[in-house]
Design brief:
single chain; two-stranded antiparallel ribbon; two-stranded antiparallel sheet; elongated
């Protein structure tokens, strides 16, 4: 190889190295997240003068050194999506999974650690429609529930609590006994008959009790906890009277959707997966304990003293 050829090779390699260095320096000092943040700041008067910096949420229960773990510890989506007012408008007012605590990826998917759009948006659900389309399948929904469970290390709750959430991170709807019975009365007739004649009608019975009729709304709310289905203590409302199917098995929106489209055994398995993971026999103990009726004892003791 002649000296001129060597010189050409040397120059070529030097130019390539210089080009790589220029690209590296450009990306290092002008990364994609800075460009996204600057674009957001320019669009909003409220963000004018905002300091360019990486923003992130520290996620609970994941990647803790105290647990000898090094998993995904942060969610950095808000580094690019910096306009909080815009985020608030895009989300329901009463979102039960606040993104400023749980991050974005628990609902939307993607890679919350990434600071470049391509890896950050990989396998992401951008909106409600995509979430519903992608998560109306047992395995995908269960994966979301398990992720929520990991992010709730301080709450003494089981996966059943997370199974109340639907594909979009909102509470599932209660579909009612009729939706469940129309399939299960042929599969489990004895069970359906027994509950239809007893637990489904429990609210009708307590409405005839003297202490219920004499009690104020706060007194009655103590009855709602066990004698209704889908009771929301924070709002004082319930989905249906009586102890229906969903009082024990949880809201059935997704389950009913999967089972309604039953065509073969694979569809049945989808519903079975949800039923198995969302049911917990410990739910029985929420109501079947003596102290639940202490207020009734107090009422009747007072009536006895009056007489």
């Amino acid at each position: 190889m002649g000296p001129y050829v060597k010189l050409i090779w040397l120059l070529t390699i030097s130019i390539l190295l210089l080009g790589v260095s220029v690209v590296w320096f450009y990306k290092e000092f002008n990364p994609e997240w800075k460009q996204c943040q600057m674009a957001e700041i320019q669009e909003s008067e409220a963000l004018k003068g905002k300091k360019l910096e990486i923003k992130q949420i520290l996620l609970k229960g994941e990647g803790l050194w105290s647990n000898q773990e090094s998993g995904q510890r942060v969610d950095r989506c808000m580094t690019c999506h910096i306009d909080e007012e815009k985020l608030v408008k895009l989300h329901p007012k009463e979102l039960p999974i606040p993104y400023d605590v749980y991050g974005c990826t628990v609902c939307h998917g993607g890679n919350g650690r990434a600071l470049e759009s391509e890896p950050a948006h990989e396998h992401m659900y951008s909106d409600r429609e995509e979430m519903e389309e992608g998560r109306y399948a047992a395995d995908e929904l269960i994966k979301m529930w398990k992720r929520l469970r990991v992010l709730n290390p301080e709450e003494e709750i089981r996966l059943r609590r997370e199974s109340f959430f639907g594909p979009t991170g909102q509470y599932q709807l209660y579909v009612g006994n009729d939706e469940c019975v129309k399939c299960h009365e042929t599969r489990h007739p004895d069970h359906v008959k027994r509950w239809s004649n007893s637990k489904f009608k429990t609210f009708e019975r307590i409405q005839k009790e003297p202490d219920y009729n004499a009690g104020d709304e706060n007194y009655k709310k103590q009855c709602y906890k066990c004698h209704t289905t889908g009771y929301r203590e924070d709002k004082g409302i319930y989905a249906a009277t009586g102890v229906g199917c969903e009082a024990c098995h949880g809201p059935g929106e997704v389950y009913a959707y999967l089972m309604a489209g039953v065509r073969d055994e694979s569809d049945v398995e989808q519903g079975q997966k949800l039923a198995n993971i969302s049911f917990d026999f410990n739910v029985c103990g929420d109501c079947h304990i003596e102290k639940k009726h202490e207020m009734r004892k107090e009422y009747f003791d007072k009536q006895a003293q009056k007489n």
